[in-house]
Design goal:
The protein has seven helices and eight strands, in the order E-H-E-E-H-E-H-E-H-E-H-E-H-E-H. By secondary structure, it is of the alpha/beta class. The chain has two domains: about 110 residues, Rossmann fold (3-Layer(aba) Sandwich), CATH 3.40.50.1400; about 100 residues, Rossmann fold, CATH 3.40.50. Strand 7, helix 6 and strand 8 form a beta-alpha-beta unit.
């Protein structure tokens, strides 16, 4: 499927987590450049959430897309608060969970050398928020459906199954353990997953290489959906 721009004119605010890691910011900046090429009629801005509020003078409509994997993670919740302050701002849903991310996850598994005899563990940062935990479960279900085999969850923190426990359980069956990284960018969390003790660990969703077309498509679809509904997308009544 070819990605298409969400509108002929307007502004897309690509809202990323706060990070002071130069390498991570470079990866995010490169992704924004790809989005600009995919939607040349739009003004696409790279906006770390600590740089909000959004510029009210930007061309309308203004659509903020959280580069996050749950509508209840910090980036999405910050945008929800910004939308309450500025009701003219249109906020899309987060990127995940989604079938396109599951397809990308399977591509990462294949690239890493995983096969059907392995135990697949979805590696997540972790949370105590039941909505975020439910989103992790949904992401694991989607990945399982596309992969064609069971996918477990291993968390670096929070209330879900801890990664060390998930790996120990998998080892009891004598199989290789492959972590499917469910994190957005390289950085501290991705490195913690790599150091967790699995046999293989996949690259994060944005790995510094040319972004997968599915991720570009997903961001533009989120813009289209938000503009079509023009209703609050996150945490609002």
């Amino acid at each position: 499927m070819t990605a298409s721009a969400p509108a002929s004119t307007g502004t897309v605010l690509v809202c990323s987590p706060v990070t002071h890691e130069p390498g991570v910011r470079a990866v995010l900046g490169s992704f924004v450049k790809v989005l600009r090429r995919a939607a040349p009629a739009l003004e696409v801005r790279d906006v770390p959430v600590d740089h909000l509020p959004a510029d009210a003078s930007a061309p309308r409509p203004r659509v903020a897309v959280p580069l996050s994997l749950s509508d209840h993670d910090p980036v999405a919740l910050t945008l929800a608060a910004e939308q309450r302050r500025d009701p003219d701002l249109v906020v899309s849903h987060a990127l995940g969970p989604d079938w396109l991310l599951a397809e990308l996850g399977v591509r990462r598994l294949v690239d890493a050398g995983a096969h059907q005899g392995d135990t697949i563990v979805l590696g997540v940062a972790g949370s105590d928020d039941p909505v975020v935990i439910a989103d992790y479960s949904r992401a694991a279900q989607l990945l399982s459906a596309v992969w064609g085999g069971p996918v477990h969850i291993g968390s670096l923190g929070g209330s879900d199954t801890l990664m060390a426990d998930a790996i120990d359980i998998a080892r009891a069956y004598g199989r290789r353990v492959v972590i499917a990284s469910y994190v957005l960018t390289p950085g501290v969390t991705a490195e913690q997953l790599r150091a967790a003790g699995a046999d293989l660990v996949t690259a994060p969703i944005l790995d510094g290489a040319s972004p997968d077309r599915r991720l570009v498509q997903l961001v533009l679809e989120r813009c289209q959906q938000a503009l079509a509904s023009r209703t609050p997308a996150v945490g609002l009544s």
